[in-house]
Amino acid sequence: MKIHKILAVMSVAVLAACSGATGGGSASPQAQTTTGSKTAIPAGLESFYGQKIEWKPCDDAEFMCATMEAPMDYSHPEGKKVTIPLEKAVGKNSKGNVLFVNPGGPGGSATELVEVSSLQFPKKLLDSYDIVGVEPRGVGKSMPVKCLDDKDMFEFLRTSYPLTPEGEKAQNEAVKKFADSCVKNTGESIKFVGTREAAQDLDLARHLLGSDKMNFLGFSYGTQLGGTYAELFPQNVNRMVLDGAVDPSLNGFNSYLAQLKGFEVATNNYLDWCLKGKDCPFTGDREQARQKIIDLFAKTEHKPIPTDHEPLTQAALTIGYITPLYSSESWPLLSRAFNEVFTENKGTLFDAFFRSYAGLNAKGEFTNNMMVANTAISCADTQVEGDPATWRKQSEIAAKEAPILGPTMPYSEYQCQVIPKSGAKIVDNFKAKGSAPIVVVGTVGDPATPYGWAEKFAKGLDNGVLLTYEGDGHTAYPRGGKCIEDAVNAYLLDGKVPENGKRCAA
């Protein structure tokens, strides 16, 4: 899911900004030990599945923290071991029932999602489950991916490359420098941060927490993680809800192009809303408004917009623009950002969106490694196709079919040629034969994971159930309202499967 040169659209920008919020944990958790489930143990992994987890209060004392040992390379478990962090919010009435969660990305922190669980999930869910995050490989303190220093990474993200031979050369040089730094500074573990390995970590954690079956709630890229788990361990699936489904069968370019088109649709929906209301920064009809946005992007390629910090480049504007499109609740802020640009020639609010998305604080320091983990995990799951000449033609196609964002982001898979892979088979098709029902939630106006992906995901599963939210924004639960919330809660809490094809109005 590549957006902006090498980076994927992520569903966690808001979560990153809220990571210090209080969550749904018990007031005074006590240290405890959990032992394994009764399910079969994969051959060769007996020592890992036989370990005990020691839970202790986290630093803020509201949540419980632990670690587990896993093989760096599951195909050679006798080799190096790695440490995977776990975190949980203890439910008042959970009785040890566990719901594993993942916020997406790739690169989003599952442990941070636990810490903001009281802001994200209904109280019924928080009381009924221990909400558990298994930190994905490459993220946070879990085999962390390390690349450029903060200063160079900041410049890398905000540098624009025109669709010219000179721009292509400069982009490839910058991408190689970036990817080489990831390989050098991360070391051997960068080869083992793929979704397949993360799914195997999930099953190890499930067993060590004493759960005979997996309960899982995943958003955006988290649906790929959940789908991979279900494909590898269908017999271990219990209640699984996947919201904002991906399509892993698409090659890199077709996935990229589908997302660009998704943001074109989101732009149209935003403009239709804006032009009917007050304080809209646009006049005329939708096409005139679209042209004004296209002109703004073209202008910033050569003339960045002043802000309260560094000038807003075209690349930074691109990230700042897509961020509020993730949620229709943010559309008024998007209007304010455009008003600031058009009336004051200032891009401070767009710059704030850019910094939030990238995980930058006021000092220009990265508060997490989401952006670099995103690249490494995406590359681990990508079979590189084409060459620079092919990517140049694909960039031209994207610019034509997605005229707002396409011209701002030359397409390339060059970084994934540089970053090495483990050689493990990429899981790019989800059937999960024999699994329990898997509920796939799709949002009709989702810009980052287009609705057609959810339809295809649910249809491909042996026991898939499609639940549709007829609204805008990225993912639906629980922000989509009572209909969506009730349907998902009924399944996760009571095992009541929604009617396949059920639709919830916006």
Automatic annotation (TrEMBL):
Sequence ranges assigned to domain Peptidase S33 tripeptidyl aminopeptidase-like C-terminal in this UniProt record: 403-504
Read off the InterPro entries from this record: AB_hydrolase_1, AB_hydrolase_fold, Pept_S33_TAP-like_C, Serine_prot/Carboxylest_S33
Coiled-coil boundaries: none
Residue intervals of the AB hydrolase-1 domain: 98-293
Q: Identify the SUPFAM superfamilies for this entry.
A: alpha/beta-Hydrolases (SSF53474)
Has keyword Nucleotide-binding? no
Q: Which UniProt keywords apply?
A: Hydrolase, Signal
The portions of this protein that span the membrane are: none
Signal peptide start-end:
1-23
Q: Say which domain of life the source belongs to.
A: Bacteria
UniProt record similarity statement: Belongs to the peptidase S33 family.
Protein name, as recorded: Pimeloyl-ACP methyl ester carboxylesterase
Tell me what organism the protein belongs to.
Arcanobacterium wilhelmae
